[in-house]
Amino acid sequence: MAHITIGPEFFAKAxxxxxxxxxxxxxxxxxxxxxxxxxxxxxxxxxxxxIDGHDKTVLTVANNGEPMSxxxxxDKLLALGGSAKAAGSxxxxxxxxxxxxxxxxxxxxxxxxxxxxxxxxxxxxxxxPMLKGTRSTVVIDGAVKASLIAMFDxxxxxxxxxxxxxxxxxxLHCKRDVGENVRTYDWGEVFAADMESxxxxxxxxxxIDGKPMFRRSIRAAKDVIVELSQDSVxxxxxxxxxxxxxxxxxxNCFIEEIAIDTSSSLRRKDPEVxxxxxxxxxxxxxxxxxxxxxxxxLIEHLPKADFRRQVAIAASSSxxxxxxxxxxxxxxxxxxxxxxxxxxxPMGYAPDEFNRYARSVAxxxxxxxxxxxxxxxxxxxxxxGFIFDPDRVAEYxxxxxxxxxxxxxxxxxxxxxxEKRISRWSLTTRHKWEMLATxxxxxxxxxxxDYHDESFTSYYTLKVEPVLHHHSAEFAKCFKNPRSK
Length: 485
Ligand SMILES: Nc1ncnc2c1ncn2[C@@H]1O[C@H](COP(=O)(O)OP(=O)(O)OP(=O)(O)O)[C@@H](O)[C@H]1O
Ligand SMILES: [Mg+2]
Known about the structure:
Radius of gyration: 28 Å
Number of helices: 14
Number of strands: 19
Strand content: 25-35%
Shape: elongated
Strand order of the largest sheet: 3-4-2-1-5-6
Mean pLDDT: 81
Bound molecules: adenosine-5'-triphosphate, magnesium ion
């Protein structure tokens, strides 16, 4: 029977399958070596060379575990999708070989009495004097020694392993402790430890059997380590750079809980939050005309909506809130200002003194959020507000005091604050769609996608964006001045 030919171009793309291929190659080599039965020592050598006028890096990884049989070598390691690993061990995708061997200039694998010399899908196999263990040598394009060393350091730093690991002559310690067990899922144990670097954000580290798979920052003043208990094929995506959606969702909920507990220590500058009283937004509107009904009314774009009525509503509710010394929003609905800068709120941006620009941004943003609420059939109440922060265009936030809040930043500002501000939303067509996309983006955060990872992107592109496009005519009306026809 004929075979499908796999050319070198196929493997050349393997590096693109990973967020960081240097991390992937280190992680996959370490896993294979540590998983090899009876490995107690791993030695890594990294050497940069110029070959035929080109920079190359020769990486050698050797372990003293049980060597491979010819069958495992040929039918598992040198076969796409092949894996000899039982459930429970790290591996089983049979994908790693692409990044370990096939995508590089050339590779050599010596194991027991066999030596393989190969390039892409082509290789030769020879017999050699017995080697106690397995040694892989790959010639990698480019001078990448420094980045590989950094990745080995990181791996050791995040790993717990009893054996001895030496990289380029330096013994690395693999003793990362997990901290306190804080949660048990049927797919893994979650631990929380004090942060390694308290000035940064917290870090989520996902490991299997003590071996780090991937990490990312989290908005918590803790490091969170997850030890997966299931076969990694079930829990992880095949790149092992992230978890599958359902597991990630569960974990996100937990991280959000920790983030809420520690939120004050997470913010760069402890932003000041001012609440302007009014009704919460949402589409479950009680009988009678109130501020929420007014906003729903605006969404339905009845063009004759009289803006002054909203002012009147706010005024009538002001007596009861005055006692608590909260200023009242002239919009009728609750409006919250979150200021990361040291100075006071800029003039004209508090809802009881809005200038024309601030009012139009606030109204458009509110109406977009309400329309999104309606289209996605959301029921929970929320508030809107402005955020003044150099790093954020918008933000979805949820806390025990203010509940769910969708903030939008009216300015483009630098670190110097809003002294040098530029209005971000000129409400040209381009800016309108940017604001709409921003709202969709924050809605994804509300929907449980805390991180800008794969699952966030697919939710936005598959679930949110099509709705925004489909209803573009209705959204366009959110930008209309409610007083004009
Ligand atoms: N250094 C090694 N020592 C001993 N056996 C090895 C070594 N490296 C690989 N193997 C064997 O080769 C098989 C294939 O390895 P490969 O890394 O391609 O896949 P895997 O580890 O099973 O799965 P994954 O693609 O998820 O890493 C392994 O299952 C293991 O039996
Ligand atoms: Mg492997």
